[in-house]
Amino acid sequence: MEYLGRVPAPPLDRFIDDIYCLTGVPQHRLMNVPPMPSAHLFLHLDGPVRLWDSDPSVPPVVFTDGWFMGVWTRRFLFEYPTRARLVGVHFKPWGMSPFVGMPTAELRNRWAPLDAVWQHSVDRIRNRTGDAASAAETLRALEEELRSRLTDAPARGLDLVQHTGGRLEASHGAIPVGSLAEAAGVSGNHLANLFKTHVGVTPKRMARIYRFAQLIVSVDALSPVDWSELAQTAGYFDHAHFSREFKDFTGHTPTEYLALMRRSPTGRRGPHDIGLMPAD
User: Fold this and answer.
1) DSSP assignment string, the chain
2) What angle (nearest 5°) sits at the alpha carbon of residue 150, between those of residues 71 and 142?
3) What span, in angstroms and rounded, lies between the C-alpha atoms of 44 and 152?
4) 20 to 30 A from 121, CA-CA: which of 137, 157, 237, 262?
5) What are the b/e assignments for 16-33, b being 16+ CB within 10 Å?
6) What integer pLDDT is reported at residue 184 of this predicted model?
7) Worst-scoring range by mean pLDDT, 76-90, 95-109, 111-125, 163-177?
8) Which residues are bridge partners to 16 per DSSP?
9) What sign for the dihedral angle of Cα 70, 19, 28, 253?
C-alpha cells in the first residue's frame, strides 16, 4: 500500500505524533496489533473494517466509517477491506484528551464509532475527501477538522501529564515512576489518577508499553537477533519476565515472532505499522 504521513503543524503537534493516509491493496488483510504508546483515530473511506479483541469474551465489531480508540494494554486484531483507503491519526498517549470531550479512560482497550464521539463529522469529512481527492488533500481536510476540534483551554492536569508523559517517551519508559512524581511535586497516587483520566492507564503501565515499543523498534528481522541483548538494552533485566510480557503483548514467543516477521516482511514505511504482525 502507498503511505503518506506527516507531523501536523503547531499546536496539533503537541498532541499528535503523525497523521497519515494509506491507499491500495493490503499485502496482508488480517493484522495482529500489540500495545503501542498511542491513541488513535481511523477513518475508512473504502469498505468496512472488522476488529477483534484478544479477550475472547469481547465480541468483534464492524465499522463502516471510522472509530476512535484509546491506549490498549493488550493486543487486538483488525481486518482490512480488499482495497484500503484509510486516514489515520496517531495521538500521543495523552493527546486525544483535548479533542474528544470525554475522559479518555472510557476509551481504554475500547473502540468507539467516530460519530459517537464527533457527531455529524463523518459526512463532512467524506464530502471533503471524495474519491478524487489526493492523499495530501485528504490529510489537509483531516488536519483542519482536528484543529477545529481542539479545545482552547487544557483540562485540569493535562499539562502535568503531558510533561511527565514526554519524559517517559524520551526515556522509552526507563525513568522510575516515583522520580517522575517527585520531580513534579505531587504524590504517586495523584499522578496515577491524572494519567488514568487523560491517558487511561497509570504511568507504570505506560512505561511498560514504551519499553516494549522500544524493543520492537529495535528488532531487525533481516539480521541475526540477540534477544538477551535487546531485552537488556530496552530495560528488561529479568529474562523470564521479558518472555512473559512479550507473549502477552504479541501472542507469540520472541522466536515465533521473529520467524513470522521473516516469513511475512511488511515493508516498514512509517509509524502506522510499527509492531503490526500478519495474522492471516
Assistant:
1) -EEEEEPPPTTGGGTEEEEEEEEE--S-SEEEE---S-EEEEEESSS-EEEEESSTTSPPEEESSEEEE---SS-EEEE--SSEEEEEEEE-TTTTHHHHSS-GGGGTT-EEEHHHHSTTHHHHHHHHS-TT--HHHHHHHHHHHHHHH--SSPPTTHHHHHHHHHHHHHHTT-S-HHHHHHHHTS-HHHHHHHHHHHTSS-HHHHHHHHHHHHHHHH--TTS---HHHHHHHHT---HHHHHHHHHHHHSS-HHHHHHHHHHS-----SGGGTT-EE--
2) 80
3) 28
4) 157
5) bbbbbbbbeebeebebbb
6) 92
7) 111-125
8) 91
9) negative
Q: Which amino acid is at 12?
A: L
Give residue 273's pLDDT band: very low, low, confident or very high (50, 70, 90).
confident
Q: Provide the 10 A C-beta neighbour count for residue 226.
A: 10
Supply 57's cell numbers.
469474551
C-alpha cell at position 199: 491517558
What is the per-residue pLDDT across 22-37, written as a single tens digit (0 to 9) for each?
Answer: 999 998 899 999 999 9
- Grid cell locating 171: 526515556
- Assign residue 75 a region (left: φ > 0; alpha: ψ between -120 and 50; beta: otherwise): beta
Neighbours of 170 (CB within 10 A): 11
Task: Take residue 169 and report the three cell numbers written for it.
Answer: 517517551
